[in-house]
């Protein structure tokens, strides 16, 4: 079968930038970031199983600026991927394809993800003791 | 000159493969992860500053053991399905693609097994 001279999809660079493009690639990027974050999740569990010293070491690591940076990143990635994932499920159900709806739900994902991330970080720094 | 019908040369090559099954599995695990991941994140937010005894107490609870095991199994399944598509899109060389996918699959299964085992070990008080 001939494969030469078949129509190719145009290169990404010819399109005018739209927020939907950024949201699409960010869904993938946050998904990959969260997949990497599962390493930290398993490390945290293993540390808890090993004993108080190892758990304290994990707590120390997550308390460093680098650990905090990672946790904030994963927190935002989680809420973004969750909200945009629900948007994807709505599309799968056949809802929300009108251009206007597409933009409204897109901005809603940004807003809800930002609010939830800010709330989570605020809770982590103020309470989080669970007495 | 090839006198064969183009369809005859394409038939049987299995171009459709198993796309629908993958797509559906990704959606089912996504739906399951909405409550499971929210439960996990909210729980962990409550444990940020907790001392060791409280964390272990939380891990000892039967509800934690069940939900955490389900969360871990589902999260690694969903993560593999997602990363698989990313690799299939961006890794061009066939041998490298297969090797990468195998490494990631084994890593996901190893991490899921280690996580579930650890959760159950703490829950059963070893």
Descriptive overview:
The complex is a heterodimer of chains A (131) and B (126). Chain A is built from four helices and no strands. Chain A is mainly alpha-helical. The longest helix of chain A has 32 residues, at 19-50. Chain A starts with 18 loop residues before the first helix and ends in a 5-residue tail after the last helix. In chain B, 79% of the residues lie in helices and 0% in strands. By secondary structure, chain B is an all-alpha fold. The radius of gyration of chain B is 21 Å and the shape is elongated. At the A-B interface, helix 1, helix 2, helix 3 and helix 4 of A face helix 1, helix 2, helix 3, helix 4 and helix 5 of B.
- Assess the beta-strand content of chain B as a share of residues: under 5%
Query: Mean pLDDT of chain B, as a whole number?
Result: 91
Structural class determined from secondary elements of chain A: mainly alpha
| Mean pLDDT over the residues of chain A | 91
Helical segment tally of chain B? 5
Keywords for this structure?
heterodimer, A: 131 residues, mainly alpha, 4 helices, B: 126 residues, 5 helices, 79% helix
Task: Describe the secondary structure blueprint for this structure.
The complex is a heterodimer of chains A (131) and B (126).
Chain A: H1 19-50, H2 52-63, H3 65-92, H4 99-126
Chain B: H1 6-10, H2 19-45, H3 52-60, H4 62-90, H5 94-123
């Amino acid at each position: 079968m001939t494969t030469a001279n078949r129509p190719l999809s145009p290169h990404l660079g010819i399109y005018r930038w739209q927020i939907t493009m950024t949201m699409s690639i960010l869904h993938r990027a946050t998904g990959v970031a969260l997949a990497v974050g599962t390493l930290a999740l398993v490390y945290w569990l293993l540390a808890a199983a090993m004993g108080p010293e190892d758990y304290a070491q994990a707590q120390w690591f997550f308390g460093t600026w680098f650990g905090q940076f990672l946790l904030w990143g994963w927190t935002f990635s989680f809420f973004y991927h969750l909200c945009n994932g629900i948007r994807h499920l709505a599309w799968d159900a056949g809802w929300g394809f009108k251009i206007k709806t597409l933009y409204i739900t897109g901005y809603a994902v940004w807003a809800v993800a930002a609010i939830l991330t800010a709330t989570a970080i605020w809770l982590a720094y103020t309470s989080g003791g669970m007495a | 000159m090839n006198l064969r019908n183009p369809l005859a040369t394409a038939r049987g090559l299995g171009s459709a493969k198993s796309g629908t099954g993958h797509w559906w599995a990704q959606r089912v695990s996504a739906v399951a992860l909405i409550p499971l991941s929210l439960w996990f994140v909210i729980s962990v937010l409550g444990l940020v500053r907790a001392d060791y005894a409280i964390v272990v107490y939380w891990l000892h609870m039967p509800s934690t053991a069940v939900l955490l095991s389900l969360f871990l199994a589902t999260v690694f399944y969903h993560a593999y399905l997602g990363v698989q598509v990313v690799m299939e899109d961006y890794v061009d060389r066939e041998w490298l693609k297969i090797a990468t996918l195998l490494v990631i699959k084994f890593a996901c299964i190893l991490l899921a097994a280690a996580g579930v085992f650890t959760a159950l070990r703490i829950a059963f008080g070893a």
